C-alpha cells in the first residue's frame, strides 16, 4: 500500500505540473538593477523521488526522497568568479538525497560547493580552488558519482579549433586529513579531444590517470567500517581491538570515448575502461552504453542504457556511482533510464538497475527502481 501511494503521488504531481505550467513574467530591465545585483546570479533545482530497492537476502525497501540545491555565482571581477552551492544530504560525499521519514523531521543542508574560478585572458584556462564541481570530463559515473565535489586545486584548459577541440584537466585534492598520520591525497591528469570529421558527427576521446597516495594500510575513507566493495584486511591493535584497512593503493588509468551522430534522432555511443595499475588482481572496470534522443525541448524524450562491470579494486568504491549497486564496487549490471521533458524546466525520469553484487562470490541479485520529478529555476 505504501509503495502504491508513493507512485500515485509522483504521477499526479507530474500531470498537474504539465497541465498548469505558466511562463514566468519578464524580469526587470538590466539597466535598472544595481551593479552588485548584476554581478550575482542564482539558480537551483528540486528533485522529488519515489524509490524501491530489493537486495537478495534483505527486505525490500520503498521510500520517498528529495534533493534540493541552490547555487550562487558572484562575479568578483572580469577574471575571478566565486561560486557557492548549498544542498541537502548531510555529509555523504556521493549523495544529496534526503529520505522522507522520522516524523517530519527537519532535513540536513550542507556546503556542497565553495570555490573560486580564476579565468585570465581569453578564457581558455581556468584555475579552481576550494570545494568544487568535478573538474574532470566524465563519460558517466563509472569512476565518479555525479554528486561528488572534490576539494583542492584544479587546472582546466580548452582550445577550440576548426575541427578539433583539445581538453586538458589536472589537479591535486585532499582526500583525508589525518590528525596523527599521513594525509591521503589524489592527483589527477586528463587529456582529451573532440573531433568533428563531418557535420553532426563528433568523436570525443581521451585518457586520464588518477593516483591516490596513502590509502593502502589505512582505514576506509568516510566510513571506517565499510570498504564499499574495495578489498580490506582486518588489523588488530595492541589492546585486541580490530579495524579495517585498505589492502590496495589506487592508480586508475582511464580510457574513454563518446561518438555523437544523428540518425533522424541524436545518438550517442559511449565506452569507459579503467584499470588500477597499483592492484595485483580484481583491478579492471568497464562500461558500454548508448543514448537515444535528448530530453531538452518541451515534449522531447530520452532513452539511455549501459552495462557496467566493476571488479573489487578497479576504482575507489566510495567515489563511484552510489545508485547502481547501492554504492561501491565488486558488482556488475544493467542500467535503463528514460526521461520526458514536460516544459523547459520540468522533467520526469525513471531509472531501473538490474545488477549482481559480488558476482565471483555470493552472487546476490540487486534491483533498484526510482521515478524522479526534477524542477529547475
Short description:
With 377 residues, the protein is mainly beta.
Fold topology:
Elements: H1 2-19, H2 35-38, E1 40-55, E2 61-77, E3 80-88, E4 98-99, E5 109-118, E6 125-131, E7 151-160, E8 164-176, E9 184-198, E10 201-213, E11 232-236, E12 242-246, E13 251-262, E14 266-276, E15 284-292, E16 301-310, E17 331-343, E18 346-357, E19 364-376
Antiparallel strand pairs: 1-2, 1-19, 2-3, 2-4, 3-5, 5-6, 6-7, 7-8, 8-9, 9-10, 10-13, 11-12, 13-14, 14-15, 15-16, 16-17, 17-18, 18-19
List keywords for this structure.
single chain, 377 residues, mainly beta, Porin, 16-stranded antiparallel β-barrel, two-stranded antiparallel sheet, 54% strand, globular
Report on this structure.
The chain is mainly beta. The chain has one domain: Beta Barrel (Porin), CATH 2.40.160. It contains two helices and 19 strands. The strands form two sheets. A 16-stranded antiparallel β-barrel has the order 1-2-3-5-6-7-8-9-10-13-14-15-16-17-18-19. A two-stranded antiparallel ribbon has the order 11-12. β15 and β16 form a beta hairpin. The longest helix has 18 residues. It is globular, with a radius of gyration of 22 Å.
